[in-house]
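HUMAN: Would you supply a protein with fold tokens?

ASSISTANT:
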Amino acid sequence: MAYESTATKRPVNLSVNGDLLRQAKELKVNVSQVLEVALASQVKRLREAQWLEDNKEAIAAYNQHVAENGLPSDSVRGRLWSGLTIPDAP
């Protein structure tokens, strides 16, 4: 799930390594923007991990079904390719 990029910005108090912050300011780094990008990436990664955890039983069951029965499209693929001939190379 993506976040609402137009949501109102909210002030926060953070503790950051002083030397790192000084260097970032010298380099004109937009600390708020960097934090927002990093935070969005972390939230996305954690949501994906949570989704995998929440759905691990269903994924395992599907993988087991495929291992035992093949993919649902296997029969269609066989019919599509069965009448196909490859012309001789010129």
